[in-house]
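Worked example
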Amino acid sequence: MKKINVVLTSLLLSSSVVAQEYNLFSELNYTRAEVGQADADILGVSSIYYFDKKAVLGPLAELSYINDKTNVYGAYIDSEGGVNDLNIGGELFYNNFLFGAEYNRAEVGSDDFDSSTVTLGYLINPNFLVKADYTDLEHGGFATFGAQYTHSLGGVDYVGFSLNVDDEFDVWTASSKYFSALGEDRFIAAELSVTDNDGDTDWGISGDYYFTTMTSVGLSYADEASDDVWGINAKHYFNTNWAVSAAYASADENDADIYSISLIGQF
């Protein structure tokens, strides 16, 4: 009888681990933006498929800081006033090399704008990725260079760093993320980002607290173009596949209020 119990326990634990690995992540989002006297309703859908399963880090919403899995993705946004945006792309990892391609088409009224991006990168080790991107626009193009590094703090805990800079070194973005398990299925995540555009600097900070692996709340603040932007969000998984999230953001100077709600599926 004891052996049977051990076998059953092992099977249950194995099922739990498998249930926390996913290939497909999809999201359906509705956003209501109110800026001054103007308002807009925005509907968006996005999806990314990994050809190898991605394991979560405890919370079902948390994945590894550096992606090393081949994938394809797409997103579409439709807004009032004839504004919409289509984005499709993919990443291939082969012998530690990263090859990527992306296409974007934006339509604003009767005008449309197309761009395409190619990526070449190299995964020096599982914790260190470097890459270069070239974006081709209708009237020219530009290159960007980036790097990501993860430092393990033991278990699932880590601190990650990212840096991106354009080919003229006029625009750069640096960011960092800290993730830690607090025990008893509780976790915390915090992020900091700074962007400098030829001397004009924006920065932001955010944090999420996980009451369990399935429920979280978060706060954020950003200083963007001398405007204070505050945000609050919450997310809850009803099971290991389906979740809903809601968020609110307010910008003081622009008199903006943004409300959003999302349905999330992971399989």
Q: What stands out?
A: Residues 2-19 form the longest helix (18 residues). Residues 1-19 have pLDDT under 50 and may be disordered. The longest strand covers residues 38-55. DSSP finds one helix and 16 strands in the chain.
